[in-house]
Write a structure and sequence with these properties.
Oligomer: single chain
Number of helices: 3
Shape: globular
CATH class: Alpha Beta
Strand content: 25-35%
Order of helices and strands: EEEHHH
Strand order of the largest sheet: 1-2-3
Low-confidence stretches: none
CATH architecture: 2-Layer Sandwich
């Protein structure tokens, strides 16, 4: 299932997920730190949604209270809430 999310408070502008059977099939990120986010996206492929949230939730970026990984966790939690 395709799911798009607009993150807040970070450089990234959009996350496009493919999610299936509680797992992340793919993640494409628009904007942000290209190399880092491509790496994170590849690491997440095949991971259970709940595990990804557990690992990334609460990560901060410098002085910001959020980060792209934290926003990915928020996106996955929003997906869960919408599709519960």
């Amino acid at each position: 299932m395709h799911y798009s999310y607009r993150p807040r408070g970070v450089c990234s502008q959009k996350f496009d997920f493919e999610l299936e059977d509680g797992k992340i099939v793919s993640l494409a990120v628009t904007g942000g730190c290209d190399g880092n986010l491509k790496g994170i996206s590849k690491l997440l492929v095949g991971m259970e949604i709940d595990e990804a949230v557990r690992r990334m939730e609460g990560i901060e970026c410098g002085f910001k209270k959020t980060s792209c990984p934290d926003q990915i966790a928020k996106a996955l939690k929003a997906f869960r809430a919408e599709h519960a």
